[in-house]
Design brief:
single chain, alpha+beta, seven-stranded mixed β-sheet, elongated
Length: 1001
């Protein structure tokens, strides 16, 4: 007691503030001691226990630090283990600094949240289970919606604000042991920093922003706003440098190709609203970029596809409207390599096919049944409209494709470079075709251009043009079919193509084909077979459905053919046009056998309808050799010119032949008549005329059949053959001048008749022999033969051509004779231009030379072409009349008639405004401002409905004007002119509507 008395006395002697100060110091010391030293360990243990009980996992914390002065907590070396002993989550340091003062006002404010070196391990085991799956299920509150009360549902959560969030040096490990080859990927370092995050709606634009490095090459940045109650967010993000190979490494078992490199970047602005019954997501100004992509076969070094750049820009997604809109797709500089395999498959197609099925077929069936059961239990979602995807335009530029065809031997290779493809729009589901344009170059110098539309049914309609294609590159495709070497030649084709697959398959082509500088050589004797300087096939019209092929004209310049009869009497044409002899005998497989059976079964199909309007031959040549004779015979036809018109497979058709040339350069030969070689029932009514043929060239034939050589003489032949219903009748007139026989031959085929006596008896006083040689026979008789000279004469026949009627007047009309069949008129006009008047004068002069020819005239009009101009004329006349009437009523001086009246600009504006208000009375408010006068006039003119009767009157008036000019001014016979029913959909060419003129008899 003696010791305590002074202390108590001193305590009592202290003032109140001194005693409070000492108590405060002691309390602070105790607070500091408890906060720094006492609490950390119990709290750490408590956290471990609670977390362990909640997760059912082993939770370990290395050390816990509490700073009671700034209310911060630091956790070090934390770790959450999985059921299999693996580490689910770990971190080096977690720092949390709370603002206590805000708790008193109902706010949860975190001054700083820092997480250093977090490590997350995601593992999929062999059964396909994810190590995090059970933990997430365990932590999720069961039946949350059923257990929560209405008050709890309406109560807003405590507002949360994080003023500084920092995650640094993160590490994520993903492992998948459900795959045949276990997959392992690391994502590091992960860095994320965010300032002033709040669950309350924020004022201002983009209050939040962060940038994170997902690994050394991949970065993610975001800025925008976020509201938890209600759940909303909007902003923009950028994900850059994603390695495509990483994605491929995980999916490679389902892919048939390997990605060697490539980077993907994605950026967009978005708006998310989760406050309603269904969350709504809108994405706009989106951009997807793919750079430096290269891929090919697995475990191969060569690239099959290399794309330096590909981008989708202007991406917009609306989850409420269920639409995806992409403004454009652009790519440039890509290089692709592909080949057609011997199986008929294109390797790039197989490259993207799934590499292996999921498990085996039995497992696949089981899963299919499970999926079907799930679908059966799923509520019907048919009320949801389908997603609509549209791409406004696309453009691929400077592409390159290296292609080889391994289905033939030797395999040809092609390089398509400078390939450009543009088009759009593209829609899914498709409601309109995809317009496109394509052009590219081929390594042999060819140029191709395509333009048209494509449907995904599929169906293609396009215009195509191919120039300067090297035909020698096609030799690999000819070798299995012909014994012919295609030595050189350039081809070009242009026209319109329609192709459609499916049950209603369709193939149509209209255009023309040209082949120039062609040289072919047979592989038997290695001599030239068929050559020409140029071949032009015009007006090709092929229609698969109609089973027809029509060609308007074939024009050939300097064609040449070599015909050889071998000692065994075979002809080179048959040998060359047959496949080469097989090098080995192979048993036919089932596929080829079925193909043969299908071909045999198809013989019942009707033959194709074929017609060729006209064949023109200029400077043709042919060489004929008969090696079966001793001595051997050879001759040639040169300077062959003429035409064949009207070839057709129609049995009633007759093609006219008119050809002229020279035998052995000096003896004229003409071929005239009618034929139809394309018909199943052949018909020939043909005359051939040979003049001054040197008989010495025929010594091999005279030696074989007459038994004498020929020393001298000339031959003129007039041959006429009629072949109808398989019956041949020939009337042949031969004139031999100064025929002189030479020495006798020992031919076993020589006649036993006294040839020398017969010649002496037939030769007149001038040394001429004039013989009529009739020929007849049945072509179905196996013993029938034309015989020597007659057979050789028929052998030189060239087949048929037909021309248009106006082209038949070409010599009278000039080079553009074909164009005389059309008369052009400007829109809404029936006046003849000076050029048309001159052309009609030329036509009448030409028709005077053809008095039996008649004209048919078809007037024409077209709403799309004529009505706009006609409506403008009517509008102008209406304004002019109303203006004239108004000024006249006001007592002002006006012309005698409205047609001479010039409408003042101010009055015109008033009348236009009145008309506009009257026309738009139902939709235009009274006080609404009016558009410009030009816009109002355009609207009023466009509102004038087309009148079929007016257009029909215009078509009749055009025909009447042409008829009046022909009859009244040019004196054309009215009985030779007929007006046909007008065409209300007349064609328009070069800005003029075409009225048709047709020649008839």
């Amino acid at each position: 007691m003696a010791l305590r008395t002074p202390s108590i006395g001193r305590w009592n002697q202290m003032t109140g503030w001194q005693r409070r100060g000492i108590v405060s110091l002691l309390a602070l010391a105790l607070y500091t001691l408890v906060g720094f030293l006492v609490l950390p360990e119990p709290v750490r243990s408590l956290i471990e226990d609670k977390a362990g009980n909640a997760t059912g996992r082993d939770v370990r914390l290395g050390r816990l630090e509490i700073n009671p002065f700034d209310f911060s907590v630091t956790l070090r070396d934390g770790e959450l283990s999985g059921l299999e002993g693996d580490r689910l989550l770990a971190f080096k340091r977690l720092y949390l600094n709370l603002s206590v003062r805000h708790l008193f006002i109902g706010q949860l404010v975190v001054e700083e949240f820092a997480l250093e070196k977090p490590a997350v391990q995601v593992r999929v085991n062999a059964a396909g289970q994810v190590n995090w799956q059970q933990l997430i299920t365990q932590l999720a509150p069961p039946n949350e919606q059923a257990q929560s009360s209405p008050d709890e549902e309406s109560a807003a959560p405590l507002p949360l604000q994080v003023r500084h969030l920092n995650i640094s040096q993160g590490w994520v490990l993903f492992e998948d042991f459900s795959r045949t080859d276990p997959y392992r990927s690391e994502l590091t370092p992960l860095n994320l920093e965010l300032f002033n995050f709040s669950t309350r709606p924020q004022d201002g634009e983009a209050p939040y922003a962060f940038a994170a490095n997902l690994d050394q090459e991949t970065s993610l940045s975001w800025q925008g706003d976020l509201s938890v109650v209600p759940l909303r967010s909007s902003g923009e993000f950028k994900l850059q440098g994603v390695q495509v190979r990483r994605v491929w490494e995980y999916l490679q078992e389902q892919l048939g190709f390997e990605v060697f490199q490539g980077k993907v970047s994605v950026e967009a602005r978005y708006a998310f609203d989760g406050s309603g019954e269904e969350a709504v997501v809108n994405v706009y100004d989106g951009l997807f970029e793919l750079r430096e992509l290269s891929l090919g076969y697995k475990r191969a070094a060569d690239n099959l596809m290399a794309i330096p750049h590909l981008s989708f820009s202007g991406i917009a997604v609306d989850s409420f409207q269920r639409t995806v809109v992409i403004e454009q797709l652009l790519s440039d500089g890509a290089e692709l390599s592909s080949q057609l395999k011997r199986t008929g498959e294109i390797d790039l197609v197989g490259l993207f096919a799934q590499a292996k099925t999921i498990d085996d077929q039995a497992a696949g069936t089981g899963r299919a049944e499970a999926v079907a059961a799930d679908v059966a239990e799923t509520p019907d979602s048919s009320s949801q409209p389908p997603w609509r995807v549209s791409l406004a335009r696309f453009g691929l530029s400077n592409y390159r494709l290296d292609f080889s065809d391994q289905s033939v031997d030797p395999p040809p290779s092609w390089t398509f470079s400078s390939l450009n493809l543009q088009g759009g729009p593209v829609e899914f589901p498709q409601e309109q075709p995809i317009d496109f344009k394509m052009d590219f170059s081929v390594d042999d110098g060819a140029q191709a251009r395509l333009a048209g539309a494509i449907w995904l049914t599929p169906r293609v309609e396009m215009e195509l043009a191919l120039d300067n294609l090297d035909l020698s590159r096609l030799q690999s495709y000819i070798d299995p079919l012909l014994q012919m070497q295609l030595e050189q030649g350039k081809a070009g084709i242009e026209g319109k193509l329609l192709w459609q697959a499916g049950e209603d398959s369709e193939l149509r082509f209209n255009g023309q084909l040209g082949i120039h500088e062609l040289i072919t050589r047979d592989t038997i004797d290695h001599q030239e077979f068929v050559t020409w300087q140029s071949l032009l096939v015009e007006g090709i019209a092929f229609d698969q459905r109609l089973n027809s092929l029509a060609i308007s004209r074939v024009a050939t310049q300097k064609p040449y053919a070599r015909v050889i009869i071998y000692p065994d009497l075979s002809v080179n044409i048959g040998e060359i046009l047959s496949p080469p002899p097989a090098t080995g005998v192979t048993a036919p497989d089932a596929e080829s056998t079925s193909a043969v059976e299908a071909a045999e079964a198809d013989t019942s199909a009707p033959p194709m309808k074929v017609s060729i309007g006209r064949i023109d031959v200029v400077e043709g040549e042919a060489n004929f050799s008969d090696l079966s004779l001793t001595p051997q015979f050879a001759t040639g036809i040169a300077q062959l010119n003429g035409s064949i018109e009207g070839m057709s497979s129609d049995p009633s058709a007759r093609a006219s032949v008119d050809l002229a040339g020279k035998v052995d350069r000096y003896a004229p030969v003409t071929i005239k008549g009618a034929i139809n070689p394309l018909s199943a029932e052949a018909f020939t009514d043909l005359g051939l005329s040979f003049s001054n043929v040197e008989l010495t060239t025929l010594t091999p034939y005279s030696g074989k059949f007459a038994g004498y050589t020929i020393n001298k003489g000339k031959l003129s032949l007039d041959l006429h053959y009629l072949l109808e219903n398989r019956q041949l009748k020939g009337e042949n007139r031969m004139v031999l001048d100064q025929l002189t026989l030479g020495s006798r031959t020992d031919s076993p085929d020589a006649t036993s008749l006294p040839v020398t006596l017969a010649i002496a008896l037939m030769k007149d006083s001038k040394g001429r022999i004039d013989i009529d040689l009739p020929v007849s026979g049945d072509l179905d008789n196996p013993d029938f033969s034309y015989g020597g000279l007659v057979a050789k004469a028929l052998f030189n026949l060239i087949t048929n051509i037909i021309s248009s009627p106006f082209r038949a007047l070409g010599a009278l009309l000039g080079d553009d004779a074909e164009s005389y069949g059309q008369i052009g008129f400007t829109a809404a006009s029936s006046e003849l231009s000076e050029e048309v008047r001159k052309r009609l004068q030329t036509l009448v002069i030409a028709l005077d030379e053809r008095p039996t020819i008649k004209l048919e005239l078809t007037g024409g009009a077209q709403t799309a072409f004529d009505w706009a101009a006609y409506a403008r004329q009517q509008w102008q006349q209406r304004l002019q009349l109303l203006g004239w009437q108004r000024l006249k009523a006001e007592g002002k001086t006006v012309p005698a008639g409205p047609e001479e009246f010039i409408l003042p600009a101010d009055l015109r504006a008033v009348l236009v405004a009145e008309f506009y208000r009257q026309q738009m009375a139902d939709s235009l408010p009274v006080e609404a401002p009016l558009p410009s006068a030009a816009d109002m006039e355009a609207t009023l003119v466009a509102a004038i409905e087309p009148q079929p009767s007016v257009l029909r009157q215009l078509a009749q008036e055009r025909a009447s004007v042409v008829r009046g000019y022909l009859i009244e001014e040019l004196g054309y016979d009215s009985e030779r002119l007929y007006l046909m029913e007008v065409n209300m959909d007349a064609p328009v060419e070069e800005g003029q509507l075409q009225v048709a003129l047709t020649l008839t008899d």
